[in-house]
Amino acid sequence: MKERAEILSQMNDRSREVFRRVVEGYLENGEPVGSRTLTRSLSEKVSAATIRNVMQDLEFLGLLDSPHVSAGRVPTHLGLRMFVDSLLEVRDLDDEDRVKLDATAGTNLGDVGGLLDQVGSALSGVTQGASLVLTPKHEAPLKHIEFVSLAQDRALVVIVFADGHVENRVFTPPPGQTPSSMREAANFVNALLEGRTLSDLRRVMASEIARRRQELDTLAADLIDAGIAVWDQPGHSTERLIVRGRADLLGDESAEEELDRIRSLFDDLERKRDIAEFPELTDEGEGVRIFIGSENKLFSLSGSSLVVSPYMNADRKIIGAVGVIGPTRLNYGRIVPIVDYTAQLVGRLLSGQSQR
């Protein structure tokens, strides 16, 4: 994010307009955009040579690319990301698209699976892309959880509910996790289940972390009061307890035992913090999000993008998601409001259904 902000600060009004016109032209027809084409659409009348110089500067910044030596320019993945984050103009939802999506409201009201299939079909038809519909999350009591390492940056959680329902979800674990740490995480989580729901489990884990943190603070307090130790970056994930004059403590057995206990508590607290992230990472997201190419670990298909939005129940809790998968040259300005409206529509339909 910081890198994109720095690049944006290096662009003046002319380069921003040239960049925006190139991206919009590419998203519209999938073809490289040349300098002569831009001379007819820019608000400022400049020569094709001037535009070519601007495009070369944008290419140097990593925002544009030239497929061929004499061809026009196309946006890079970084350029698309910059456009989506900073320059995208989201349109209002077309009435025609709204009518097609609303037509799903009167179908399969007694069958959640049928309703979501209908919504997926309508979303595909409206966007001409592949639809993605994640069904409502199960909130029944849990029976067992297993974490399986798939790659360095990807893991699978297998959730078994007390009513026999089983869910598999792919997520990105905290950095540095190994198969053995995944097993340790599963053992810790399963010891706390006791018929709790996922929401209950998160609260219990937060309470456990707070309790261990308080124990650590109490033990460290005596050392700090005695001037033996001091907190460095307190409250941060990288906080440390710095011990002064450690050599003077070697003859004090009780102080050594206290330091070992503090070290053990630090290790335990760090592990629990990592584990506590697991349920959160399998259940994140709010509002429409756009993943371009390899930004999405699950749909890292070359030349593809994912536009996705969660939907909520009557209690404003995220229970599922809908989205569209298509080429990177999606018409984002049109697709974003469609996905957003569809997510709101599904949330309303399911909330109304649960109140029947």
Automatic annotation (TrEMBL):
<dbReference type="GO" id="GO:0045892">
    <property type="term" value="P:negative regulation of DNA-templated transcription"/>
</dbReference>
<dbReference type="InterPro" id="IPR036388">
    <property type="entry name" value="WH-like_DNA-bd_sf"/>
</dbReference>
<feature type="domain" description="Heat-inducible transcription repressor HrcA C-terminal">
    <location>
        <begin position="115"/>
        <end position="336"/>
    </location>
</feature>
<dbReference type="InterPro" id="IPR036390">
    <property type="entry name" value="WH_DNA-bd_sf"/>
</dbReference>
<dbReference type="InterPro" id="IPR002571">
    <property type="entry name" value="HrcA"/>
</dbReference>
<protein>
    <recommendedName>
        <fullName>Heat-inducible transcription repressor HrcA</fullName>
    </recommendedName>
</protein>
<keyword id="KW-0346">Stress response</keyword>
<dbReference type="InterPro" id="IPR023120">
    <property type="entry name" value="WHTH_transcript_rep_HrcA_IDD"/>
</dbReference>
<keyword id="KW-0678">Repressor</keyword>
<dbReference type="InterPro" id="IPR021153">
    <property type="entry name" value="HrcA_C"/>
</dbReference>
<keyword id="KW-0805">Transcription regulation</keyword>
<dbReference type="InterPro" id="IPR029016">
    <property type="entry name" value="GAF-like_dom_sf"/>
</dbReference>
<comment type="function">
    <text>Negative regulator of class I heat shock genes (grpE-dnaK-dnaJ and groELS operons). Prevents heat-shock induction of these operons.</text>
</comment>
<comment type="similarity">
    <text>Belongs to the HrcA family.</text>
</comment>
<dbReference type="GO" id="GO:0003677">
    <property type="term" value="F:DNA binding"/>
</dbReference>
<keyword id="KW-0804">Transcription</keyword>
<dbReference type="Pfam" id="PF01628">
    <property type="entry name" value="HrcA"/>
</dbReference>
